[in-house]
Amino acid sequence: MTQTVTLNVPDISCEHCERTVTQALTPVEGVQAVRVDIPAKQVRVEYDEG
Asked: Tens digit of pLDDT for each residue in 7-22?
């Protein structure tokens, strides 16, 4: 079952930050998608529960 968590990341401010976060989370086992919203300063992670 896929779960979604939204993380508040107050220091995210640029595309470099977006790439860094995406590259760090994508290889984590179970992570299906990473979406970064710079203006909202949030990261949404979809992952398989388990």
From this structure: 999 999 999 999 999 9
Task: In whole angstroms, give the CA distance from residue 41 to residue 50.
Answer: 27
Query: Are the beta carbons of 50 and 19 closer than 8 angstroms?
Result: no
CB 23 within 8 A of CB 49: no
CATH of domain 2-48: 3.30.70.100
pLDDT of residue 49: 86
- C-alpha distance from residue 12 to each of 1, 6, 16, 26, 35 (Å): 29, 14, 9, 17, 13
| Identity of the residue numbered 4 | T
Residue 13: closest CA among 34, 44, 46, 36? 36
